[in-house]
Design a protein that fits this description.
The protein is α/β, with parallel strands linked by helices and 310 residues long. Helices cover 34% and strands 15% of the residues. The chain contains ten helices and twelve strands. Helix 2 crosses helix 3. The radius of gyration is 21 Å and the shape is elongated.
């Protein structure tokens, strides 16, 4: 950054926040935008709001196409702005590639590369090219974990500038036990309805535990509650012992986590950051499928962790 950069507007590409079912990336975008706005206001501008105001939005396009359209249109309108992309895509060349302003891109994970079975070949190829483009266009890549950084460098090589900045987390003191939790012991699984979240494995584990613990219940949170009946057919959990609360606010999620018997994740490849924000300090164990690189970080600081068979 140069001395003149401290006066430039910061154009934050918050288009992803219109798609909350995408999960953690949308939530992290909200958090990062809020942090930047508090620190650099009034320089921080919302791309969503500005595009609508200038008549440059294209809401009928799919998310990534819409983001690309808005970014390119606003970059022409504000050639002096610093461009911040909170979800990998960087369709505008940064200053080091001949552009007029710095481009900063946030990389969460490379699921398309490590969970290829969930992505059609054409989609995988497009995403691979988009992630390569992010490295080529960005003046700085920010990774949410050392694991993500290592995966990106192994596949694409080192970017010009890089940093690892963990996702922002705000943990409030635990509140009273929510009425939704009831009075019986419960497991908590906070995850959106994506294939790699392994609902079938979760229900099989709960079925086995419930046979031994007749009062144990399973609470789920996240987007995709309408898909639960179909997901339940993947296994045979006890009827009436599973409740899906839908998407809940952070404070509620933290309170549920604190009062849960265990926070359970059997995702094929869990991401780091957002779920940790729901785990306040306390003796709540983390059950997991295997020792994925990300998960030991979630149990740091003396937290216990449990193993769940695959």
């Amino acid at each position: 950054m140069t001395a003149s950069d401290v006066k430039r507007p910061i154009l934050f590409m918050d288009i992803v926040q219109d798609y909350p079912t995408m999960g953690g990336v949308a939530r992290v975008s909200e958090q990062v935008f809020g942090l930047l706005a508090r620190q650099f206001s009034p320089r921080v501008l919302s791309a969503r709001a500005l595009a609508r105001h200038l008549g440059l939005d294209a809401p009928d396009l799919a998310y990534l196409d819409r983001e690309r359209h808005v970014a390119q249109a606003l970059a022409r309108q504000l050639p002096d702005a610093i461009l911040f992309f909170p979800n990998f895509q960087s369709p505008v060349p940064g200053r080091l590639r001949g552009g007029t302003s710095p481009v900063i891109s946030l990389i969460h994970d490379l699921q398309f590369a490590f969970l290829a079975q969930y992505f059609p070949p054409q989609r995988r190829d497009w995403l691979s090219g988009a992630f390569a483009e992010a490295g080529a266009h960005s003046d700085c890549l920010v990774f949410v974990s050392q694991t993500t950084r290592r995966h990106y460098l192994e596949r694409y090589g080192a970017p010009r500038n890089q940093a690892v900045i963990y996702n922002p987390i705000s943990v409030e003191p635990p509140g009273p036990r929510p009425p939704e939790a009831g009075s019986e012991p419960f497991l908590l699984a906070s995850m959106h309805a994506h294939p790699h979240k392994n609902f079938a494995g979760l229900f099989r584990v709960f079925e086995a535990l419930a046979a031994r613990l007749p009062n144990l219940r399973l609470l789920l949170t996240g987007h995709g509650r309408e898909t639960l009946p179909g997901l339940a057919e993947l296994a045979h959990p006890p009827p009436g012992r599973i409740r899906h609360l839908g998407h809940v606010e952070d404070r509620m999620l933290q309170s549920l986590s604190y009062h849960a018997t265990a926070f359970v994740s059997l995702s094929a490849r869990p991401c780091i950051g957002v779920s940790r924000g729901a785990l306040p300090d306390g003796p709540r164990p983390l059950s997991r499928q295997s020792d994925r690189p990300q998960l030991p970080l979630l149990t740091a600081g003396g937290r216990s962790s449990g193993q769940v068979p695959q």
